[in-house]
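Study this:
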Amino acid sequence: MKAFLRWLLFVSLSTVGIALAGTNGIIEEIWVTDTYYISTVIFALFMYATALCGLLSLQVGFKKPNLESIAITLERNWFIASILSSLGFFGTIVGMVIMTTGIGNMDLENVNLTDFGIGMSMALYTTGVGLICRIFLRTQCFTIQQSLSKITDKVIHEE
């Protein structure tokens, strides 16, 4: 039960952070700038993995948890965490392509830096969203891993 309460506290603090970002217009800016919705995919994967972490932390608190099932799902979440940062870096590449496309179409008489700004914003936002979601997901996985190792140590010492 301790693992679930830690997870719940972490999710509550994360929700407050997301709410603050929303009230300051950061989420809307990311939504408008990321025209390929890479940040949305990253956040959707993060929410899915966070829900799985909540279920795992609840299962760890049971009297006789299914350790094999928990380990498999936890391994899947570690994999999703690595995908989140990879998607963020993919968004960086897409943003850079948009940015350089804008530079290639420039006329010296008619300078339009809109594509350059949109590409740079997308590159930075997708990288930031990917890295932040990765850090938050890895933190959740780490706390569950610690609780799981305590249980396995206890099982080994009882035998």
Remarks:
- The radius of gyration is 20 Å.
- Residues 59 and 134 are 23 Å apart (CA to CA).
- Residues 2-8+38-158 form one domain.
